[in-house]
Amino acid sequence: MKSVSIKEAAHQLIDQLPDDSGWDDLIHEIFVKQTIEAGSTESKTDSLPIKLKKEPLINAIFEVRFKSTTAASNILPGFLFSKLDGKKTINSLPAGNVPQPIRDADPNLHYSHLVELHWNEFIILIGDNSFAIVCEFPYPGWSDFKSAILQVTHFIKECEIIEEMQRYSIKYINLIQSDSLDEQISMIFKFIIIGRLFLKENIFAFKTEIPDNPYIHIVNIVSSARAKFKNGHERNGLVVEIDTIANTPTQEFKHWNLSNHIDKIHTLNKKIFFKCLQPATIASMEPIYG
Predict the structure, then answer these.
(1) Which tens digit of pLDDT belongs to each residue from 220-229?
(2) pTM to 2 decimals?
């Protein structure tokens, strides 16, 4: 079958529009056609890369929020220090200087992290109602990060101070290198139009929530970002942050089998990340497929 050129397809779209159509109607039809074609292509190549040669990831965080029988920040740091092997140091965080009654009364501080435990290449953040495992640049890969999450969670279960889980989440922060704002826009958008504003040379930030019952994905995209790493290297470009949250009302922590859920939430987060990117952007990161 003879393929239709873009010029011919555009003529067909225009011919199908009512006589009283405006530019907005034409732009809408073009967008719908592009979305349908992108979906068709995606269904044919729906596999996810197992690795990117040009890794954009700069930070990964797995967090659990909970109710406990006592202030977890007083118990868990020392308990984990005694259980975990390897190099370890403990430091207090600024939120720990805020009196507990104020933290309990302020929703913004209720789940704040009060203590950090540096453990090999990971950081464990601990609050009275939350804990998190952080993996900073360079990312060692999902296998090592997953192993650390399961090990820390296992030891926290042994402590038996957490009664009920409220949610768990995984967040990946990516910084895709680019010094050109125009290029950063093209990585995710065909173009950006707000009302009668056509954004081509404007720094932008975009945030949205995508329901995916029982999960929710929070997508945060910021242009013209800069990161400086511990080794002194810097990177400029586009931030693509995906935070995938699973709410677990009335889930008893001691009966929660994280190993049954952790791969799924990671895969869902990964799918959203790649769906945010244009095919050319993915190709530029040199993906490897299994």
Answers:
(1) 999 999 999 8
(2) 0.84
